[in-house]
Amino acid sequence: MSDLFDKIVSLSKRRGFIFQSSEIYGGLSAAYDYGPLGVELKRNVQNSWWQAMVYQHDNIEGVDASILMEPTVWKASGHVDAFNDPLIDDKASKMRYRADQLIEGYIEKLRKKGKDDEAERVYARLVEALNADDMPKALHTIIMDEEIRSPDSGAFDWTDVRVFNLMFETHVGPIHNADNRIYLRPETAQGIFVNFHNVRETGRQQVPFGIAQIGKAFRNEIVARQFIFRMREFEQMEMQYFVKPGTQMEAFEAWREKRMQWHLGNGIRPSKLRWHEHEKLAHYADAAFDIQYEYPIGWQEVEGIHSRTDYDLSRHQEFSGKKMEYFDPQTQERYIPYVVETSVGLDRTILMLLSEAYREEDIDGDQRVVMKFHPKIAPIKAAVFPLVKKEGMPDVAHAIEADLRQSVNAFYDEKGSIGKRYRRMDEAGTPYCITVDGDTLEDGTVTVRDRDTLEQVRIDKDNVVRFVQDKMRDWQPID
Ligand code: GAP
After folding, report:
1. Which of 228, 233, 303, 343 to mutate to test the pocket of ligand 1 (most atoms within 8 A of CB)?
2. Are 351 and 235 in contact (CB under 8 A)?
3. 23-32 pLDDT, tens digit each
4. Predicted TM-score of the model (pTM)
5. How many CB atoms lie within 10 A of CB 406?
6. How far apart are CA 268 and CA 293, in angstroms?
């Protein structure tokens, strides 16, 4: 694990962004709780997504479907039969890896060493293996042929590659048998597909239109040791866009562009994002790209954009016996719409924002850790401090805080030196700190300190709310 990654995990706990689940009992692996700052970050990301997807498109409707669904849904979607990870164990360390990711890591290493031809050769083999009838065997053969060693122990002592289904099972009612088995949804998308007609009719939508949802998903990830990158309980923000067959590539390209712009609009630097085309297309998909971010653990997927044809709706028609067709009133045609899906992990977005924001800076010989979040994402937008706890300064500061709280999340702090209070807010990523001092009592002005530039300006205390709002709107990353 990288140094930066460890620092982010440690800051997340120290400052109340993210805690290990059930920590007092020793913790539950791959499950995390969002603390007071983390939950604000999460809400801001959800709002930014909902704003961009639902409010900015009059042809996209929102839903909030249940986590538990009639189990045939997962037969129809293919998850019961084919939602498997190929896994391999290092016999020496007992560590378990995803075989395809082990090979990807090896390819990345070859590239870093400048062995591009070799990397291309192994990559071609990986693509072939992922599409092979006996995929586990094909992946195992590559690991053996290339003598790929265990990243942790360095050993070359592997088990066979085996596949595991990732769905969590539970039972409805008191009796536990196969007849009342039910699954925790492994993706939110199916809650959208099964509601296709409900939403279309009640929203009076015509194709093309979309349905958006934010919600929990569950996967029994076998290899899960990367903080909130790979969790067993996580949150997805998904949108299914229903289009006329034949027009899907146009919609696919348009959504690719919009989704990349969303990440950039949240303050992610362009150099930290890239496109990755899927090596293996699901048999029903006709295009699939991931947006990858350069996490401290390397380039990894944060979002998938998939052109899923009419697979899901057709399968639900087949398994439910209900027509999933759409009648086009303009052309008088009847068809099952094709679907372009955008699917972004909320927790992976949070990890990306934490990684992007984390900076260590030297200020006149003093080290500061500062989280340079985009202000619209920052958990606290403004903090208000009285210079000292007397002479009426706390009252003035509380009044400014109350004003700010009408529109943004604000914070009041009177403990410790001003320098310490600034440092605490830097770690929380608060973009603006307002100090009430002796001059405030004389002329009604306060100091506003900018988190990024450290510039301090004096403004009238009655203009603080407007000043903060203007600054937030005009914010630009400074490096
Ligand atoms: N409906 C399509 C779908 O679920 P996916 O690529 O399996 O596609 C979409 O998942 C996104 O969900 C990923 O890009 C990732 O951000 C997030 N995700 C998937 N598994 C995750 C996990 N175990 N922990 C955290 N996020 C996960």
Report:
1. 343
2. no
3. 999 999 999 9
4. 0.89
5. 8
6. 9
